[in-house]
Amino acid sequence: MNGLTRVANAMVSDEKRLEAITSNLANASTPGFKRRLAASHGEWVGRQGSQEIGLGISERNDFSQGMLQRTGNDLDLALEGEGFFSVEGPRGELYTRDGEFNLTSNGVLVTPEGFPVVWESQAGNIQPTGAPVTVSPDGTVSQGQAKLGKLKLVAFDNQNQLDNTSDGYWKAPATAVRNPATGSVRQGHLEGANVNAIYELVSMITVQRRFEQASQTMTQIDQSYRRLHQSR
Amino acid sequence: MLRSLLTASSGMKAQQMQVDTIANNIANANTTGFKKNRLSFQSLYYQTYRNQGAPLGGGAIDATGLQVGSGTEVSGSAMMMEQGQLEMTNNGFDLAIQGPGFFELQMPNGDLRYTRDGAFRRNLNGDLVTAEGAYLNPRVTLPDGITNFTVSPGGTVSYQDQNGQNIDLTTITLARFPNPTGLRAEGGNLLSANESSGQPAALVPGENGAGAIQQGALERSNVTTVEELVSLIVAQRNYEVNSRAIQVSDEMLQTVGQIIR
To answer: Considering the entire predicted model, what is its pTM?
Structure first.
């Protein structure tokens, strides 16, 4: 692999990193959003026997806890600690940390997109105009004195396997090992995004400067080729 | 780089709308029965460059993949139904709701609207109406010459006749919705039912989870100015940071243009 390709590779990797940073910043107000970390890593390229290390990039979610914000809305649920709410998406179960739930006129607990929230055994039937709904830290939903059931809270052995879908949901591969969640539900709260502007800005500066250095290197390589051609 | 430009601009657009919402909340801090609005944000489509588990060469597989998000969007606005503070006015025509529920109003054209603003007055026929002339539904009509009436927490309207006899007139019912955050704001403190809010149930105040009526009081808005100002600061800073991201993307694009000298 020649120098030019290598430098171009580095620049493309910086571009991807910038995309991840801007996406994090844009989602600083999205409840339950988990920031994406881009990491460069050595990657084997080239044929067997003459392998070289190039620069690859991979991304994963940083699943650290976001700040809980009080909203005072009974059907706003936040998770503190490990775990996800599971909801019934159009193509199978999806997972989310964004607990902005609503009630349909039939008493079904749904997400803003209208996906029904999944309960542990049997979906509890909430009286839409009945007594106030309370949700205990373990996810048990009651209305007045009556216990209606428990929301399904799921944790994963390997969260990095989760696939981001649009609208802020995660999809899990069939092979993922699911466990009961250890986190607890906080009613009347939402979990804010775990985006830290300082961290993202610092990363952005680093990316920009490295990008500039790479581009200067590219100019130098280009000029040295040019001199080589002229000397002939 | 073009992607990150668009991503950052989606963040700016969302924060702009957030500022608009906060401004409206603050402007209505003194509006009777006003419920503050909140925007919900959601992350946009993720571009998958490489799937989890994709082969990386040399027999290794990718543990995390490469998916980049494309920003944020405002997915909806919701009314926060927290109780506002009750302010005593000692005016018998002022009614406040303590707890969930809405007064049902019948507009002069027959449409039904809902409100938490219980500043009523009496029209020529003795009906209880709002400032805009919408009737309280079911209608409350005071007999001629009666100006003093009482409304119990349970919604019973009664008055004393010439002989000092208590006469029950009617009962005010409150409307409760399956999903009150989905009510549509129509301006003028009025809300209307729709598919998202569901159809209302008429309930006796104080029963089955409906709020109680307090006569001689008005419900203030549930806007806390300090909270709104803090949100405003956060929105402004997020806006700035996103604009900085646009600047950096632009500068990096510029760098590319200067590679060949």
So the answer is: 0.79
